[in-house]
Design a protein that fits this description.
28% of the residues lie in helices and 29% in strands. The protein has 334 residues and is α/β, with parallel strands linked by helices.
């Protein structure tokens, strides 16, 4: 099969045999894969990554090993998306770790992560995942929508972590791909969501989805130019400079959710956290079922965020295009 590996900071095409399956695992033919900012960070040295990246995908199950005839009938031939964290049970570890025993599979002490830690990802014609990680994609949800399930689930995680029922407004810092999804998810529960960003075309996309927007410069001058405060602020700029502004904008006893993952240090003063008694919440993966429900209901349509679709064979050009200024979601078609 054709796949693309990150080696020494470059994406390179290679071919390799189809992977062998362990019992309870599936072979999935990739239909579409999304290029994420995390993939770009991996290219730049995040996690010292070497291997096949890509963790956003929709595909078709081709094989399922070691399962009953009924289970094979259920899955083989189905369109699926998949949770990216592979935990103790699927890895064959006995006994399972303390985090798995607590039901925190996404924090498994021995986990591998599709396209990020120790497991080849979706920049390939085929990938493997345990059947327990799969979610069937409803017929009403197109491939172009389903490829967003993983990042949309990450946005939904905020609603699992923070009680937003009494909030009348919230702020999202950043106007990129994840920030756009976060703002759309928050708007399903909060009457007013304000996105702060520095790219007018991206802010225009948010406004078309009913999200209020305000322009910022993305540098230290914003600390003097942005007077608003919010009980809930989500930092999703993908930049270390966003954190200082987020701390300033979070009101006393408010909640700051951190969604950015970037390679490098983020110098920041911690005194506002103490003085304003801010609750800081790290937020990562989230519930696929809720993301699929939002797509199926039509409450969220992420397809306006798609900038361009490349063939898998053009993955090198695709990831270079992704890094151009102002580009939103780029897809790979296998």
């Amino acid at each position: 099969m054709l796949c693309f590996r990150i080696e020494n900071g470059k994406l390179k095409a290679t071919t390799k045999p189809l992977p062998k399956l362990r019992p309870g695992w599936t072979l999935v033919r990739v239909r579409l894969a999304g290029i994420c900012n995390t993939d770009v960070e991996l290219l730049h040295g995040y996690y010292n990554f070497r291997g096949v990246p890509g963790h956003e995908f929709v595909g078709t199950v081709e094989q399922l090993r070691g399962a009953s005839a009924a289970e094979k009938k259920k899955w083989v031939g189905r369109r699926v998306c998949g949770e990216i964290n592979i935990s103790c049970k699927a890895l064959g570890r006995h006994p399972v770790c303390v985090f798995c025993r607590r039901g925190l599979k996404t924090h498994c002490a021995y986990r591998t992560v599709l396209g990020i830690i120790g497991h080849p990802g979706a920049y390939a014609e085929y990938l493997t995942l345990p059947v327990e990680n799969l979610h069937a994609v409803p017929e009403e949800v197109s491939d172009e929508k389903a490829v967003f399930v993983e990042p949309l689930a990450a946005a939904c995680e905020i609603l699992e972590q923070v009680d937003v029922r009494r909030l009348r407004k919230a702020a999202v810092l950043g106007d990129g791909k994840l920030a756009q999804l976060i703002a759309r998810v928050l708007l399903t529960e909060i009457p007013r969501v304000v996105m702060y960003g520095k790219h007018e075309k991206k802010l225009a996309l948010a406004r078309r989805a009913g999200i209020a927007t305000k322009g910022v410069r993305g540098d230290a001058s914003d600390l003097k130019r942005v007077p608003e405060n919010f009980r809930l602020v989500v930092e999703a700029t993908g930049s270390p400079t966003g954190l200082a502004l987020a701390l300033q904008m979070t009101e006393p006893r408010g909640t700051l959710v951190l969604k950015s993952t970037f390679h490098g240090a983020a110098p920041v003063e911690t005194w506002p956290i103490v003085v304003k008694e801010i609750t800081v919440v790290g937020s990562r993966c989230g519930p696929f079922d809720k993301a699929l429900a939002l797509l199926r209901s039509g409450k969220i349509d992420p397809t306006p965020l798609i900038a361009r679709t490349f063939q898998l064979a053009d993955a090198e050009r695709a990831i270079a295009f992704t890094q151009q200024r102002g580009v939103m979601k780029v897809l790979l078609k296998a």
